[in-house]
Amino acid sequence: MIIPLNYSFRNLWTRRLTTFLTAGGIALVIFVFSAVLMLANGLEKTLVGTGSDKNAIIVRQGAESEFMSMLDRNAVNIVKSQPEIAVGPEGNRLAASEVVVLINLPKRGSSNPSHVQIRGVAPESLTMRPQVKLVEGRRWRPGLSEVIVGRPVAEGFQGAGLGETIRFGMRDWTVVGVFDAEGAGFESEIWVDAEQLVQAFRRPVFSSITAQLSSAGDFSSLKSRLESDPRLTVEVAREKQYYAEQSEMMATFIRVLGLFVTVIFSLGAMIGAMITMYASVANRTTEIGTMRALGFPRRSILGAFLFESLLLASIGGGIGILLASLLQFVTVSTTNFATFSELAFRFILSPAIVVQSLAFALAMGFLGGFLPAVRASRQKIVEAFRAS
């Protein structure tokens, strides 16, 4: 004989205050747990979204980032002559030699300096990255000290707004445009004509070459030919994979730190659920004795109390996920460990995070409610009525 489920619902409603407090504790834990996963997911999505499956990136062999890579003009010419590289509408190869440097800019409001990445790009760079779109102003004009900036940079740094001036490379650069990159890491950069950046920093080499493939299947042959060419010392990677690997260390750090905090919080939440369920068992000694007298077996009583604990945890988990989902409207920035530059990204909720958060909440409910449920199921009829 099974105890009706509405018995558990009714008992939670009857003790509304303890239900609210315990569910609130579990909701806080799930909020932190979900936020950590959303933060790591947002970071990964931002950097993965920075690349494209159609593009390959070429850097110096052994260089862990574009900052450490150096490619001379001879290497650039050899790479651009490869037959696997697509041809643009104007008959030119869709390959862009780019330069990456770091500068310090003061933040708006606090004036604290932070690293910002400047990318010297070619006209083909915009063609190969259709997600980059100007939302204000115009593109830079060749030969002039003009830049375009990502929206987070324009909003977060002094002198980076449209029409303002930034000083680097012993020049004053006018911001003539603001661009959006659909949340990709490019939004945290300042873009300028590569030849102007090379002159300003007196840098005779480029950092990387990004090339669009004629077809995705051409990647293997391009990689094989370039990496075995005795005139070159380069590594070839798919652009999306390259940027995804740069996020791996930082995403792992966020997850480990967040999970450490979550574990501490979850211990408190489980103890809270256990206290609630023990109090529930103590207050319903007569009810338990009556159910045993009516013929309900021990396993039914254990199941009813365990279900009540899981129900409590699922309510708290649902509230925690709902609160965490509001973080999707928040944009945060941090230092990218791979480039040491400021990187802006959003919290991103995914179905996998919802499932993981609910599973974690139910695990807390199970662990917190199991011992009180066992105690309830072991109540003897005589002792239960005597206690009342």
From TrEMBL:
What is the membrane topology listed in the Swiss-Prot or TrEMBL record?
Multi-pass membrane protein
Keyword Transmembrane listed? The answer is yes
Report which superkingdom the organism of origin falls in.
Bacteria
Q: Which InterPro entries match?
A: ABC3_permease_C, MacB_PCD, Macrolide_Exporter_MacB
For this UniProt record, give its keywords in alphabetical order, as a comma-separated list. Answer: Cell membrane, Membrane, Transmembrane, Transmembrane helix
Q: Name one GO cellular component term.
A: plasma membrane
Q: Which residues form the ABC3 transporter permease C-terminal domain?
A: 260-380
Localization of this protein: Cell membrane
Boundaries of every MacB-like periplasmic core domain copy: 19-227
Which parts of the chain span the membrane according to its record?
20-40, 256-281, 301-327, 347-371
Asked whether the keyword Membrane is assigned, the reply is yes
Molecular function (GO) terms listed?
transmembrane transporter activity
State what protein this is by name: ABC transporter permease
Species of origin reads Candidatus Manganitrophus noduliformans
Write the lineage as a comma-separated list: Bacteria, Pseudomonadati, Nitrospirota, Nitrospiria, Candidatus Troglogloeales
